[in-house]
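Reviewers of the previous submission asked for a worked example of the structure-prediction workflow described in the proposal, so we include one complete record here. The input consisted solely of the amino acid sequence. No template or homolog information was supplied to the procedure at any stage.
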Amino acid sequence: MEITSLARSTRVDLIRFEVIRNALVAATEEMALALKRSAYSTNVKTRSDFSCAFFDHSLRPIAQGFTQPVHLGSLVRIVPAAISKYDPDRLVAGDTIITNHPFEGGVHLNDVTLISPVYVDSELLGYVASLAHHVDVGGGAPASIGAFREVFQEGVIIPPVRLTTGGEIIPDIFNLILAQIRSKHETGGDFRAQLAANNTGIRRLQELVRQHGLEAVREDIDELVHYTERRTRSEVNKLPRGVFSATGQVDTDGYTDEPVTLSVRIVIDDEGVLFDFTDSDRQRRSPVNSTYAQTYSACSYILKALLDPDIPVNAGFYKFVQLEAPLGSVTNCTPPFPVVGGWETHMRLVEVALLALAPAMPDRVPAGTKGMICHSGFGGIDPDTGEYYCFLETLAGGYGARSRKDGPDAVQVHGQNTENAPVEETELNYPVRIVRYELIADSEGAGEFRGGLGLRRDYMFPDRPTTFTVLADRDKQGPHGLRGGLPGKVAEYILNPDSGRGTALRAKGTVELQPGDVVSFRTCGGGGYGHPFSREPARVLRDVREGKVGLERARRVYGVVIDPREWVVDLVATDLVRSGAGDE
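From that input alone, the workflow returned the following structure tokens.
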């Protein structure tokens, strides 16, 4: 069965094309599965903080296994940069390149990428890559997160170097890297899991070529890119044309109380979508700078979210993502400026860009979400073993309401897709007790459709001193509402909250804890959509009965009066309150 492409004169075997197209994606997804099942750290094996991809011999992105959509654009930048920097002619079968260099296509140092060439006999098909967030890469604090002033304080910087040759780890390189890292056992295990993932991808792609032939696979890869380009162009043509602008901020930079201004100008035309961040702040000596790859990833995510979800993600899609991020700005920083909190800025860039598009796409854009990654990291020396342990996770928060639906409670948002770190696994493997883990009542942004609730998670360290870092945001301004919806409640970070002497912690900082200390994270709720008085009273009643909204808030904010004895809405009193007569 053959079809003729609408845009090309070549004839393509449709069945073979679909088989190869899906096999390429399946190879990257099987890589992800191998990585997850082989990893050591909770952050990788349980929370799935990694992604995998395949690039052809021309270094075009062809298939990606999106465990984490934040990696949507970062892998696309770092793999070509690393291979070009290293020199592809030096790579042979069995080699693997390792890198995390933030100013050569990378992001923050914890995200380490392993790249391996795929040869079939003596012919180069392309490259497989796996990117994983490692729980520690050295630097000034456990988990390698903190309010640092230079990138050199954030951990080991790895330029593109060969980690394996002939399929075997090069001990000198491996030991040199691990010598900089606290959690050597977990990190070493996660590196080996990435190698297992790459080897899995190589085998699957080799099998594909041997089944269909190298010429056929290359031909269908070319067609896949053109097919994606045609479909993406068709979808972009459906977007509203024009120029859309908005301004937002990261609440604090980690050293001062000054916000970091983020401005975006979005131009949608026949050439694609241009994201212009020229008017954003200059880079700062604080942990809020985004690398070019992180900013590019934010733009890629936004465009992907606006198009048909069935469109493949490869070079044909990325052709329509255009970016202006001036060198030396907070959206495209230069050395030695720190980058560890760049994902926090990336997340807020997504929020600001969606705010710009909201007037033109009111039914497609949600109100403000958690809008931060929200890192929690801690570590110390285990007195029983003498070994250093490290833990890192990111906490969920409220999603913004939509034009027809409430925002989900306590979820990871936008490109962040990490899973929950179960209490049982965390307590089993680390010297911590999770003493509270619950939704935060009344944290939602009220509206006709309410925002999702924030999350409270309290860490207690019962028997040893611990170094704890908060790398987050949103403690100054809650997520914005849309069309009369109210903002979500701001986040809080509190030391010993139930002691009667609780101390507010900075959203970006490191503290030394003593045995018995508790750190409480309280993430923000999502913004509301539409005026709260337009919310159906039955929905408010349900929220009250589920403990998500209090009786007093129901009356004051939503104008709904509820009889707690019968658990029914007093419709007469509700009408009076909503008309204003009930307040007289």
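Residues 1-9 have pLDDT under 50 and may be disordered. We consider this example representative of the routine output the project will generate in years two and three.
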